[in-house]
Amino acid sequence: MTEKKYQIAVFAGDGVGSEIIAEALKILDVIADKKNIPMSLKEGDIGGSAYDRAGVPLPDETLELALQSDAVLLGAVGGPKWEGLDYSVRPERALLGLREKLGLYANLRPVVAFDELLAASPLKKDIVRGIDILILRELTGDVYFGRPRGVTREPDGRRTGVNTMIYTEEEIRRIAVAAFELARKRKKNLVSVDKANVLETTELWRDVVTEAGRRYPDVALGHMYVDNCAMQLIRKPSQFDVIVTTNLFGDILSDEAAMLTGSIGMLPSASLGDGRALYEPIHGSAPDIAGKNIANPLATILSAAMMLRHSLERPAEADLIEKAVTGVLQDGVRTKDIYSRGTKLVGTREMGDAVAAKLKTFLA
Ligand code: NAD
Questions:
Q1: Which CATH code of 2.40.10.10, 1.10.1740.10, 3.40.718.10, 3.30.450.20 fits the domain covering 1-109+262-364?
Q2: pTM for the full predicted model
Q3: Catalytic residues, which ones?
Q4: Which of 51, 104, 285 to mutate to test the pocket of ligand 1 (most atoms within 8 A of CB)?
Q5: What CA–CA distance (Å, rounded) separates 353 from 359?
Q6: Which residues pair with 277 in a beta bridge?
Q7: Does the beta carbon of 337 sit less than 6 angstroms from any atom of ligand 1?
Q8: Which residues of the chain have pLDDT under 50?
């Protein structure tokens, strides 16, 4: 039987995008070569650079490439150059377009505190030590998409704003199932976050998650109100394994949780749909440091590891990349954003080289 060749679309985007993607590709190259993973990578343009060339941030051929691929690896989009454009052609619109067209309903954000970087967190070391949380945010429903929406004006001039919090039970069930499946592969502890005491939509959320849980007796399911969860993430983040929540609550809680680790340059993400997926660092295009070889490529490298785990069925190889990143941090190698006295300051390319070299020692 011939082995499946994975099709991967690579969209570097704007700002530091091309610099960080180059380092992730370096790592994929090493792992594909040494572990014999058949993959074909095709590049496409997206965001501001696509707008400059084609007049739109998500050209048809880019979308087509994404639709035909098993996974998309993305850098970042946006920058001051395009800030004055109409909203319909802003670089960031390309991301919403991709999420919608690829049906990416599950957003995974792992929040891991590396022992070597504990000092980078604004919280006390004892609070963040050892945390390893996976936040699963529903990505295609809730107030961001619900209708009616908008601002209306009465004849007397008074304005009313409305957004609609809405979830069907099918939408809740599919994200709940994804959450239980992920929890099953981890510490089997799932907390579903809602506001069921005052919002009927999330009362339904709680009911459907509970129903879905009957098929996963091996996973401990708990429920938490979102306000309490926001507090618990700061008070005792180590209590969490997997958190599943709505689009709005997940948007806010995942940014809060990102701060537990200290640097935005360390955090990867995956957005998954049925048979489709997109992997990207959580940070933006960092125009202030673009082209200077100082951006931290580790979030993008860790996103590539997530791609191996979730789209290419190569969890062992994903583990190796994560181990190589940890190894490099243990060696004291640091980009500027995570630098502290006594460690070795390197640039974007040199950080990629260090991870590649470490990875090769595991694969020799
Ligand atoms: P940003 O994440 O690009 O940068 C915030 C700060 O973090 C900056 O000081 C930046 O230098 C730093 N930073 C970000 N990534 C880093 C890395 N890898 N290494 C070291 N430092 C890093 O957010 P912003 O400045 O608010 O936005 C810049 C542009 O990116 C905007 O156009 C915004 O719309 C866009 N954006 C895109 C995405 C995306 O593509 N997914 C996400 C967020 C923002």
A1: 3.40.718.10
A2: 0.91
A3: 144, 195, 227, 251, 255
A4: 285
A5: 10
A6: 272
A7: yes
A8: none
